[in-house]
Design goal:
568 residues, mainly alpha, Serine Threonine Protein Phosphatase 5, Tetratricopeptide repeat, 34 helices, 74% helix, RNA binding
Length: 568
């Protein structure tokens, strides 16, 4: 059924395209209607038609005889992702543009990632005494300042709102709230919000989504609850925002309540909401529910496929993920870097090297190059399949690298016992090392017997050379390294230092090393240190019983076994 439906949707899209072209081919008397039709359904692919229509508007004289036509043309170019053409049309007007045209030009620049140009145009507008900025002007400039992270200018613009009597305008206030939250000025955002006499759903969405995007999930949930208490009906944007909160916190129960609300409100067929629900259930390992939503979707976009593939990969259903990727290609959906970053780990987990190579070929064929996320996943896939040379080729060919790129390659050398290669790469590292980097380096030293190098790296961590403090995993690596090297006294000292950070875990590799080297007394001493320290699981109790058994203390073995039975 889904295949037939997809075929119908494709035919409908073709029919609509032909219909639009026929309308756009009418005589000059319908230029205004042609402009309206094209603007309503504009996309970057419509730019040639927009340019053709622009020429007809100029030759017919309609463009400059009607200010509304100029404004519509600027908006059309903006929707076609051509802010340069929009600005050229704005500046080519023989008469001074009205405020609507100024606002359209500001929107074209700010919505197409040209914040500095938008700021410059706004300053030019301020030199026009006859044109006072209105409630449509300020959201554009506020967004531009948010993109520039210019808090000083934002506060100046905020002050201007009072001058023009717009401080209580919902549309403008929502933009200001978003900007303050984006830049991390939470108190300013809350002040703007609380002082407003009336609040619409857009403003509530700004608070819920703003805190959600900052990772302040408790605050986002609080504003969502307040919104409901005040009788405000959540919109589709509210739903996707709060679902992202429950996804990040793995709150499946609350997520299911939102799902029920979605069903009640008739939002079931909204693609963005369905994608968010798939993401929620996928992150909570409820694959059956995620698959049900995916199968019931009447329309799917790239995010739908990515969400479902990522959900399968997240739950280690790697074969299913690869199968769904094949279906995606068969449906004619073009993968992006997110798709590939989900598929490549699946290839490495099932050792499907042929699929990994095909994906690499796809990257090269479609010239998806320079995407760090995809390149990292490709490098990780080759490393986990044991092809270190291929992984290094990807690493060397990356035009950009982040800290994860270095971490993946260093960890690959560490995992394959090539400690010296890992250290050489670490010493040439261009990005600032983080906790993961240092764990990989210490692990490489441990598995390759490079004790002195490991001690030097750990000493630099303790001195704050890398800007991070010693963490649990660093201590565990050091205990493991010293234990493997037979330096039991140093290992014992390190395990004692690690107790506050890692609890009993630091003693386990030390105890295993004691047993291996026949140091029974030392093993028993370590066993008695960890006995009962961690309540969950039976691992420490088993280790303690075994240590007593090695030492021939069978009465103590019986006591530990009895205590294990008593505690269940």
């Amino acid at each position: 059924m889904n295949v037939n439906l997809q075929s119908f949707l494709n035919r409908r899209a073709v029919f609509f395209t032909v219909y639009c072209h026929r309308l756009l081919a009418r005589p000059p008397y319908s230029l205004s209607s042609r402009l309206s039709i094209l603007q309503e359904h504009a996309s970057p692919s419509c730019l040639p038609e927009a340019r053709e229509l622009h020429g007809l508007l100029v030759t017919s004289g309609l463009l400059y005889s009607s200010p509304a036509v100029l404004t519509s043309l600027i908006s059309l170019y903006s929707k076609c992702s051509s802010p340069t053409a929009a600005l050229a049309a704005f500046r080519s007007s023989p008469t001074p543009p009205n405020l609507f045209a100024w606002n359209a030009a500001l929107s074209a620049l700010s919505s197409n990632s040209l914040p500095e140009d938008a700021l410059g145009l706004f300053r030019a507008l301020r030199t026009m005494p006859a044109l006072a900025p209105d409630r449509f002007t300020f959201p554009c400039i506020v967004k531009a300042l948010s993109d520039l992270h210019d808090a000083v200018e934002l506060r100046k613009i905020h002050a201007l709102l009072f001058k023009y009597g717009l401080e209580s305008e919902i549309f403008v206030s929502s933009a200001a709230v978003n900007a303050y939250l984006t830049m991390g000025y939470v108190i300013d955002a809350e002040k703007v919000f609380e002082k407003l006499p009336e609040r619409d759903v857009v403003l509530w969405n700004s608070m819920v989504n703003g805190f959600a995007q900052k990772g302040q999930f408790v605050e986002a949930k609080q504003y969502f609850d307040r919104m409901l208490e005040q009788g405000m009906v959540p919109s589709r944007f509210t739903i996707t925002g709060i679902l992202s909160v429950f996804t990040s916190t793995a709150d499946l129960n609350c997520g299911r309540k939102i799902h029920a609300f979605v069903f009640k409100m008739g939002y079931t067929f909204d693609v963005a909401i369905s994608n968010s629900l798939i993401d929620l259930y996928g992150k909570c390992h409820s694959l059956e529910e995620a698959e049900q939503i995916f199968e019931c979707m009447l329309e799917r976009d790239i995010f739908s496929w990515n969400s479902m593939i990522s959900a399968l990969e997240y739950s280690a259903e790697n074969v299913k993920a690869l199968h769904l990727f094949g279906q995606m290609l068969h449906a004619g959906v073009q993968p992006d870097s997110i798709t590939l970053a989900a598929i490549l780990p699946a290839c490495s987990q099932v050792a499907a090297l042929s699929h990994g190579r095909e994906t690499h070929a796809f990257l090269l064929r479609h010239w998806i190059k320079g995407d760090v996320f995809a390149d990292n996943a490709l490098m990780d896939m080759y490393a986990k399949c044991g092809l270190l040379q291929e992984a290094r080729k990807v690493f060397e060919g990356m035009p950009k690298r982040d800290v994860a790129s270095w971490n993946i390659m260093i960890d690959a050398y560490a995992s394959h016992g090539q400690g010296e290669d890992a250290l050489r790469l670490f010493s040439s590292m261009k990005s600032a090392a983080d906790d993961v980097t240092l764990v990989a380096v210490l692990s490489a030293c441990s598995h390759s017997g490079l004790v002195q190098a490991g001690l030097e790296v750990f000493a630099r961590i303790e001195d704050g050379h890398f800007g991070v403090s010693p963490a649990a995993e660093h201590y565990l690596c050091m205990v493991d390294m010293l234990s493997r090297a037979g330096m039991l006294e140093r290992a014992k000292e390190m395990a004692g230092m690690a107790e506050k950070a890692v609890g009993a875990r630091g003693w386990r590799p030390y105890m295993a090393a004691c047993k291996e080297r026949g140091e029974v007394v030392m093993a028993v001493d370590a066993a008695e240190r960890i006995l009962g320290r961690e309540q969950e699981g039976s691992g420490d109790w088993v280790l303690t019983a075994n240590a007593y058994g090695w030492a021939g203390k069978f009465r103590e073995v019986a006591y530990v076994r009895g205590e294990m039975r008593r505690r269940g």
